[in-house]
Amino acid sequence: MENPLLLSPQLNISAPKDKGYYKKAVMKEEPQKAGKAGTKQKRNRLSLLLQKPEFHEEDHLGKPGNLPKAASVSPEEAVKWGESFDKLLSEKAGLDAFTKFLKTEFSEENIEFWIACEDYKKSKSAHELLPKAKTIFETFIQKDAPKEVNLDFHTKEVTSQSMGQPGRSTFEAAQSTVYRLMEQDSYPRFLRSAPYLGMLQGRAPARAPLRRRSRSFTVSDFKGARPNPALW
pTM score, two decimals? Predict the structure, then answer.
C-alpha cells in the first residue's frame, strides 16, 4: 500500500504583500521620516543663524562710554577742561563728557547727586524745596538708597537732621564732600583717559569694540577631526 504524499503549503516569498498592511506601515513610517527631516532642518537653520556676526552684536548706542564726538568739542575747548574741575563742570559739553566717563566706572551717582543739588539750590520757593529734598535724600543719602553716595557718618547725620525743615543749604555739606571726592579721584583719571586725550588731538573717541559671542559648534565642525591621545 502506497503512502499518500503529504503536501504542505509552501510560502510564496514573491507573492504580493497585503496591500492594506503595507500601506498602513508606509504611512506610519513617512511621518517619522518627515519629523526627523524637519528637526534636522531647523537645527541647521539655527546653527547658520548663530554663526552670523550680526546676531550677536550688542547695540552700544546710548550706552556708557560714548563721549562727545571730536566735531562737537574743539581741542581748545578740551584744553580748558584740564585747567580745573570747576571749569569742566561749568560747560555743558564738559559735564556731559565727565558724566559718561563716570558711567564707564559705574560711579555716575556722584555727578547725578551733584547735579540734583545744583538744581535744588535754584528752587524759587520753599514750597518747591520739600518735595525735591525728599527725593534727593531718598535717592542718594538714606541707607540702602538706590544711588547712595559715599558720605562720612557726620555729614550724613547732619544732612538727615536738617530734613525736618529743609532749606537751600540742606545738602551743602554732602555736595561739597562728593565734589571733593570727584575732584581728587575721578577727575585725574578722566584727564588721563583715552577719549579725553583723543579730543585734545582732535580725534573722535574710539568706540568700544563690539563683543561677539562664540558661535555654536555643529556636527560638521568635527568631521575629519582626529582624537589626540596626548590630551587624554
Answer: 0.58
DSSP character at residue 213 = P
169-203 pLDDT, tens digit per residue, is 999 999 999 999 999 999 999 999 998 999 999 86
- Backbone dihedral region for residue 213 (phi beyond 0: left; psi -120 to 50: alpha; all else: beta): beta
Q: Are 69 and 204 in contact (CB under 8 A)?
A: yes
Q: Helix, strand, coil % (nearest 5) of the chain? A: 60, 0, 40
The two most distant CA atoms of the chain are separated, in Å, by 138
Task: Give the residue from 164, 92, 91, 105 showing the smallest Cα distance to 134.
Answer: 164
**Is 126:87 a contact under the CB 8 Å cutoff?**
no
- The per-residue pLDDT for 138 is 97
